Amino acid sequence: DRSIKIAPSILSADFADFGREIQAIEAEGADWVHIDVMDGHFVPNITFGPPAVAAFRRHVKTVMDVHVMIAPVDPFIDAFAKAGTDILTAHVEAGPHIHRTLQAIRGAGMKAGVALNPGTPAQSVAHLLDLTDLVCVMTVNPGFGGQKFIDMSAKVRELRAMIGDRPVHIEIDGGMDPTTAPLMAAAGADVLVAGSAVFRGGSVENPAPYGENIRAI
Ligand code: DX5
Ligand code: ZN
């Protein structure tokens, strides 16, 4: 579906070759580039921080969509803004003051996203929708690529109704592939993150599978 944006997650890219991986997925049709920041505390894995994100910015020509799985978030907001982040998405579970965090993200000049773990209800963002540009519905427990999809169709439908006519994206993150993606699009999602399903079968030397995979989702 052309109206659905695909945001490949570089969590499934070659970690020794991020610059060329980003160029390859954009050349093959990525709408946004999704960057997963993990701290080994909020989630049981560690990836990279603001200096790496600043380096990625030199290659991203589309939208740099940064998903922070870190706690706390607030001390790092300015660093992600300076790194050139377009959309900064923080978890509602990451601290007691998500409302303040979203205000600070917008205050730093970025678009503000809020992410929900699978166990977190749609209602947890009911009072945040005017502070938010994107709601990210996790369809895996965050921390790793390549996990099994957890169906959150009911949550997505509930969020779409709550959002009404506000200009808020619903992004799905985890287990998106040609079978699961249509379920989420039908429920009301408009941005799909995909890691393993985009990068499988390709490489920077042979990027054509990236494009085939993106178009298949
Ligand atoms: C998981 C990350 C996802 C991950 C998705 O914690 O937030 O963005 O890269 O990977 P796949 O598409 O392989 O489930
Ligand atoms: Zn993510």
TrEMBL record:
The keyword Zinc applies. Transmembrane segments: none annotated. InterPro entries: Aldolase_TIM, Ribul_P_3_epim, Ribul_P_3_epim-like, RibuloseP-bd_barrel. It catalyses: D-ribulose 5-phosphate = D-xylulose 5-phosphate. One of its GO terms (biological process) is pentose catabolic process. The gene is rpe. It is an enzyme of class 5 (isomerase). This is Ribulose-phosphate 3-epimerase.
